[in-house]
Design brief:
One of its GO terms (molecular function) is ubiquitin protein ligase binding. By secondary structure, the protein is mainly beta. It has two helices and 22 strands.
Length: 470
């Protein structure tokens, strides 16, 4: 580099991921082979969002600035030969959004250093990126524990002849998940036509909207599960599970140019029937115990109110005149038991099923309910070697742990490394303990398990009381 042998920015404790409201501090190191005349030495910290309409283009059509601060390390003068260190510190605004990298836009944070020299001399500059993570707490999203459900009815037309209708219903167990959790999906297909339907497909979808003059929508399939079709006149139920891979969070709070949405798309190939189930992907998982206790407290308070109301009503009616008591009726003669079996109060075993059509709550003579087998799982749009995954890459919530032996290609990853996401939009990288520079987020998505070759998961059989009630 000539006179300038070293010109480098370092962050304290080699920290690279920060939270909004934190301060970022570090040192600018300069090593000179000989003295250098300079007009000023400055360090700048800024964060902004830029979007475009071309893939991976940096000629931004729209920009949004979050903060831009500059401090002067030295004024006009001569920098002597040798090593020089200039400490710096910046405060990150609490309103800054999470870092993001997509095909049509980015949210970028960086620290830059400049050495301005006199006229006709070479200026020097360097920069170092850092990453911001604003946690999305799913417990703060309203109605997050309620299932996301939808239903649609479509006319089945075969060879231009209407043969009946098909009713598709689907729901997920919740509306919010964190990476590593499982989406429990249930779909019900009622084929009221004379032809068999095509296969049923459930897909986890990501939709990123870039707000230019003409908004750009980047829609991609994250995971996909396919089930068999339903025969004519049949009603079938399909239960499937989808593992949520490492993904950027649903909301970029503080950014008005980029919007991230997730939903589950359930569709039939024939006839063409499709519905969507909106969901949220966050960083802090749901605390079901807290939600359950709050609901229990609400129900207890309502029960107390009802008890108070009924007690007041009882007090009022007690003052009204009562009718004279009537003689008690004579007991009816007890019929003699016909057999020893009929004298039992309750059966000693579940009753036998008289009608095959009664299984699944269907009446005799109606369509029989059956289970749809799963044909395939797939993870789309991913290539490249498997990267080592940090166990903390999935969720911030305590208690959610994963095996730490996820290693490949002989790489040794730090299990306490920073959280990361994949090329579907996140910029928080994953790097090894010995690496000082972030590696690109090229980790492929995690394939869901193939449940066809395994006895897991299996639900426990229903209890005796549940069988009787059904």
């Amino acid at each position: 580099m000539g006179k300038l042998q070293e010109f480098e920015l370092t962050f304290d404790s080699n920290k690279i991921v920060y939270s909004p409201g934190e301060s970022i501090s570090g040192t600018l190191k300069i090593k000179l082979a000989q003295s250098l005349q300079c007009k000023a030495i400055k360090v700048n910290c800024n964060g902004f969002c830029g979007i475009t309409t071309k893939v991976n283009d940096t000629a931004w059509q729209e920009e949004e600035q979050y903060f831009n601060s500059t401090v002067s390390m030295a004024d006009k003068g001569t920098l002597k030969q040798g090593d020089h260190s200039f400490p710096f510190k910046f405060l990150i605004p609490a309103s800054a959004p999470t870092s993001f990298e997509g095909n049509y836009g980015r949210i970028i944070y960086r620290v830059r250093a400049f050495v301005d020299t006199p006229r006709f001399s070479k200026d020097y500059k360097t920069e170092k990126p850092f990453y911001l993570l604003s946690l999305l707490n799913l417990n703060e999203v309203p109605d997050i524990l309620e299932p996301s459900s939808s239903a649609v009815t479509r006319q089945f037309t075969y060879l231009l002849v209407k043969t009946g209708t098909v009713v598709l219903r689907a729901q997920s167990d919740m509306k919010g998940y964190t990476p590593g959790q499982i989406i429990q999906l249930t779909a019900n297909i009622h084929n009221q036509s004379g032809k068999s339907t095509g296969t049923v497909v459930a897909s986890l979808m990501q939709r990123v909207t870039y707000e230019t003059k003409k908004p750009t929508h980047d829609v991609r399939t994250i995971a996909e599960v396919e089930g068999a079709g339903v025969k004519a006149g049949k009603e079938a139920e399909w239960k499937e599970k989808i593992i949520v891979p490492p993904l950027p969070q649903s909301s970029l709070i503080g950014c008005d140019l980029i919007k991230i949405e997730y939903y589950i798309k359930v569709s039939l190939k024939s006839p063409e029937v499709m519905l969507t189930l909106p969901i949220h992907i966050g960083n802090i998982s749901l605390d079901k115990k807290a939600h359950t206790s709050s609901k229990a407290a609400a129900s207890t308070s309502s029960a107390v109110k009802e008890t108070t109301t009924s007690a007041s009503a009882t007090t009022i009616t007690a003052t009204t005149p009562t009718l004279p008591p009537r003689p008690a009726p004579k007991p009816a003669p007890r019929a003699a038991p016909r057999s020893r079996v009929s004298s039992y109060i309750s059966p000693s075993a579940p009753p036998a099923e008289d009608h095959q059509g009664a299984v699944g709550g269907m009446s005799p003579g109606g369509p029989m309910s059956e289970a749809i087998p799963t044909k395939s799982h797939s993870q789309l749009g991913v290539s490249g070697p498997h990267a080592a995954v940090s166990p903390t890459a999935f969720s911030y919530a305590p208690g959610l742990t994963f095996p730490q032996n996820q290693r490949s290609n002989g790489s040794t990853a730090d299990s306490n490394g920073p959280l990361f996401c994949v090329s579907t939009g996140a910029t928080i990288p994953f790097f090894s303990e010995s690496s000082t520079t972030p590696m690109p987020a090229t980790c492929p998505l995690i394939l869901p398990p193939d449940y066809r070759n395994s006895a897991y998961p299996q639900e426990a059989p229903p209890s005796y009381d549940e069988s009787c009630n059904t």
